[in-house]
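Take a look at the protein record below and tell me what you see:
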Amino acid sequence: MDLPNTHRHPFTAPSNGVSSTDQSADSTAPSNGTPRSIPLRPGAYAPMLTMFSENEDLDLFTQSKLTLRLAQGGLVGLVVMGSNGEAVHLSRSERSRLLASVRSTLDEGGFAQIPIIAGCTEQSTRGTIELCGEAARDGASYALILPPSYYKPAMTADVLIQHYNDVADKSPIPIMMYNYPGAVAGVDLDSDTMLEIANHPNVVGAKLTCASTGKLMRLAAAAGAVTANSPGNGFLATGGFADIIVQCHASGGSGVIAGTGNVMPKLCARVWDLCAKGEVEKALEMQKVLSRADWALSKGGVGGTKAALQEVAGYGAPVRRPLRGPNEEGKKKIMEQLEEALTIEKGL
């Protein structure tokens, strides 16, 4: 197996002990719609929830509130239109408006250096390339792409490698692999396949929602992942849950992209920052609490996470059908399970 190409997008590693939450307000991007080159930093990211009104219309005013909440909470990047963002429920027009709104909110709020990773998954290679182009136009710096799965029997390793290579060839922004078997009929990218894809110079990272820390370790080591204190080759190797932040750090990974970050961004960021400073015992104690909260939100799904955000921030509950939020009893149970973690979050 050839080692991945070391040509990656620029990255500046924080010095030992420097928090990943430090942000510069200066933008490196032109204002003429050219794709932005904003480095991917190690740390905690969140796949943003998409805000809807009670009648299920896109609610960009509330989306801006959430955007600033997450940026101010210390997250180093945002995924827009991921699984937690109900991307499959959005029209092309809504995707464009949503992405442009988040980018504008970050820029105007003093967070121009926070990159946006846009979900850009279609079942065809052609459609995926089109989404990447639209995302670049609307303010994304990177594209996060699930493997196609509708014709699962045809999705051999060779086919998937060719798909990602073809997309990477044509995408105006760098792409990241997204391995989430539960969302794609069980299609699971193994580490050999991912490393072959990572050889492409326009493939700069991966999100592993398969929760395999062994796969993460193999990928991070061979691809030269950026870590808390080393730039590596600039490859961003992330886990997909908040309950494995310490494990990702120990595995040589770059952080996590976790839905729980929508509800408790400060706690997610703090666990990573403690790891980065070498305070692993403190990180582990917080990780234990965060792991219980993450499990409660994972069981509740998008509806449960949105219900929790509503309780914590006063907005965010509506989902698009056929999704549903929890009933009152279910919501109460979720909040009881989040109580300890939310107490820590409020104190940060």
Notes: The longest helix spans residues 280-313. The CA atoms of residues 20 and 116 lie 16 Å apart. The two ends are 45 Å apart (CA to CA). The longest strand covers residues 203-208.
